[in-house]
Structure formats: C-alpha cells, structure tokens
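Hypothesis: this fold can be encoded by more than one sequence.
Test: take the structure tokens below, design a sequence, compare later.
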C-alpha cells in the first residue's frame, strides 16, 4: 500500500465508529475472524446493553437507547421505567411488549473479518452475543494455559464462528482456526474507536422519546402521563407512597388523553431488523 492508502485506511478505521456503517455481525454459516487486543492484560472488549423501544408488538422501533447499567455500570432510567411498567402490566399482550423493551446484551470487540464478502485487512468492530464471547474466552483460556495469547497481533490465532438457525433457535459454535493468517503489521494501531461507536449508535439522545413511548404504550396505567411526570416518577419510584400519587395522577389525566391503545403502525421493521432482534432475545438479561 502507498503512504496515502495507509493514511486513508487509518483514518477510515479511526472514524469507523463515528461515521461508518455498523458493527460486523456474524452471518449464517462459518466465518473466520481474528480478535485483537492492543495492550496485554487490558480489557479490550465492550459490553453493551440496548433497549429497542416500540409502541406496539411488531411495530417499528421508535427509540434506540443504550442501557447505562450494562454499558457504563450506572443506573438506567429505561430499565427503571420498564420495571415499573412490568409491575403495572394488565394483560399478556402488554407483558409481551414490555419484554421486547428489555435490554439486549452484546459484546463489541475489535478485530479482522477473515472470510466471506466482508473480509478485509482493515480492522472493524465485531458484534457478538455474550454467550459466543464467553465461549471465545473459554477457548482463549485453554490456549493461554499453553502460553498462547490468541488475541495478540503477532502470535495470536483466528477463530471460526459458526452460526446456525434463525431467530430464537440461533446457535453459535466457537473453535480455534486450524490455520491462522498473519495480521498485517501496524493493524493494532488502526483499531476502531469502540467507545465513540457506542456513543454514536446507542446514546444519541433518544432517552426522553423512549420514556414517552413507554408511558403512552402502556395505555391505561400511564395514559396521559407526560415525560416530565415519568421523569419525576422515576426519581421517586422508590419513595414510599409514590405509587399512590402516581395512580391518582394517571386517573386524572387518563380522561383527557384516551391513548389506551397505541396507534397501529403502518411502517414495518425490516426483515433483518426483526431477525436481529429475535436472535438477540436469547441474550436478554
Ligand atoms: Zn437499561
């Protein structure tokens, strides 16, 4: 590569999180990947939790909000609102919708895609289910006991991940590759900025919108409760008597805003989006 191409590749990698595309998701079949750890002994992966908030089951995603709890180990307002909604759910349909709002966990890891049509020498962010990444760590631990760091740029090894099935039946098998390709020198300095990627994808200021959708979609119990009230309710959620106050407010305002049922969505989420959500259901927690 010329110096200019090198520079462009480096810049592309640097801004991958901010401007470019999505993380690489393991497609069906076998995919060879290499995971890269910049500094020995450093935690090089990121745990992320995401709430996909819809107004109705099968409806379009209205707000995508990262879960502060899973991602940053801070209290998550959306989780609190969901817990509250759950405690007030009136029927199975409402419970099913609330379940869809729950955070889906994923693990983001920097690495190279080695096979398939996305194969490239430019490092990307690879998205894995927590179970898959747990299995990767188990394999890596085994090799580590024999003195091999599978995540090393120089002496590491490739993994083969096999994805089988669809939706809730999706299964991932992890194994060490029989043969590992070398990593181009300097790749480790071009790893994408996963923190920036997480901020740009999942913390883009849709929290209020999500709380609003939750308040409206839960109909009878939350109809007419404004965002401000929800925020206040969340702050007081643990206070004694807060529930009673809230119930009163709900009764008073429900008449003014009879939004008992969410408006039917005409826009349907894309097939792949549904598929992604379905496959991530296994990682609710
Ligand atoms: Zn959360």
């Amino acid at each position: 590569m010329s110096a200019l191409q090198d520079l462009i590749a480096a810049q592309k990698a640097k801004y991958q999180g901010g401007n470019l595309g999505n993380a690489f998701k393991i497609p069906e079949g076998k995919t060879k990947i290499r995971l890269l750890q910049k500094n020995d002994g450093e935690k090089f992966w990121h745990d992320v939790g995401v709430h996909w908030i819809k107004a109705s089951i099968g409806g379009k995603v209205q707000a995508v909000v990262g879960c502060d709890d899973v991602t940053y180990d801070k209290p998550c307002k959306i989780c609190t609102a969901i817990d509250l909604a759950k405690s007030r759910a009136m029927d199975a349909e409402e419970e099913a919708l609330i379940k869809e709002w729950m955070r889906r966990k994923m693990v983001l890891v920097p690495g190279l895609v080695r096979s398939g049509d996305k194969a490239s020498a430019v490092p990307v962010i690879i998205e894995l289910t927590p179970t898959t990444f747990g299995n990767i760590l188990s394999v890596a631990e085994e090799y580590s006991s024999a003195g091999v760091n599978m995540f090393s740029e120089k002496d590491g090894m490739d993994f083969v991940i096999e994805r089988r099935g669809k939706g809730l039946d999706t299964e991932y098998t992890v194994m060490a590759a029989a043969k590992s390709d070398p990593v181009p020198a300097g790749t480790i300095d071009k790893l994408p900025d996963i923190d920036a990627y997480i901020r740009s994808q999942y913390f883009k200021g849709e929290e209020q919108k999500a709380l609003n959708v939750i308040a409206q979609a839960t109909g009878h119990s939350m109809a007419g409760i404004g965002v401000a009230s929800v925020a206040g309710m969340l702050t007081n959620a643990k206070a004694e008597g807060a529930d009673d106050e809230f119930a009163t407010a709900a009764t008073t305002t429900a008449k003014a805003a009879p939004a008992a049922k969410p408006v039917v969505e005409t826009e349907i989420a894309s097939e792949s989006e549904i598929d992604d959500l379905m496959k991530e259901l296994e990682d609710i927690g």
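The chain has ten helices and eight strands. The longest helix spans residues 3-19.
Hypothesis status: open.
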